[in-house]
Amino acid sequence: MDDCIFCKIVNGEIPSAKVYEDDQVYAFLDLGQVTEGHTLVIPKQHARNIFDLPEETAAEIFRRVPKIAAGLKKALPLKGLNILNNNEEIASQSVFHFHIHLIPRYTNKDDFGLKWADNANWYTKEAFQELANKIAKEV
C-alpha cells in the first residue's frame, strides 16, 4: 500500500531498527518505546488489521512471536511481556497495518498498564450462553 508507513519500512523506504526479518515477517523497535525493547511484529504483506488478515498470514506471524519474544528475554532483563494488538481506532490502532506489540515488563511501575473490568454481574447464566451461541454461530 503506497501510503502505509509500515509498508514503507518493509520496502526500505523508511529506516527502522530491525530486530528480525524473514520472507513473510518483519520485526522492529517501536519508536515510542513504551518500555525498553518495545518491538512491533508485522506481516510484510499489507493487511489493515485482524479483520483483514488472512489465516495463513496470521499463522506465519504468530509462529514467529515466541522466537522474537525469546530473543527479547535473552537480550534484556525483563520479568514479563505483554503481547498486544489493537484493531480499529476505537481500540487505539493508530497505524492501519496489522501489527503486534511485544512490550517487555521490568517492574510494576513500568509506564504501561491495562484496565480490566469485571462485568460478570451484567449477565444471567442464560444471557451469557445466548451471547456465546450468537458468536459461535458466526465463527
List keywords for this structure.
29% helix, HIT-like_sf, globular, 3 helices, alpha+beta, 18% strand, 139 residues, HIT-like, five-stranded antiparallel β-sheet
Question: What is the CA–CA distance across the termini?
Answer: 29 Å
Structural class: alpha+beta
CATH fold topology: HIT family, subunit A
Count of separate DSSP helical elements: 3
The average pLDDT score comes to 95
From the alpha-carbon coordinates, what is the Rg to the nearest angstrom? 17 Å
Number of domains: 1
Number of DSSP strand runs: 5
Q: Give the SSE string.
A: HEEEHEEH
User: What low-confidence regions span 5 or more consecutive residues with pLDDT below 50?
Assistant: none
Which architecture would the CATH scheme give at its second level?
2-Layer Sandwich
Overall 3D geometry? globular
Task: Please report the first level of CATH classification, the CATH class.
Answer: Alpha Beta
Beta-strand portion reads 15-25%
Helix content: 25-40%
- The named CATH superfamily: HIT-like
The major pleated sheet works out as: 5 strands, antiparallel
Summarize the structure.
With 139 residues, the protein is of the alpha+beta class.
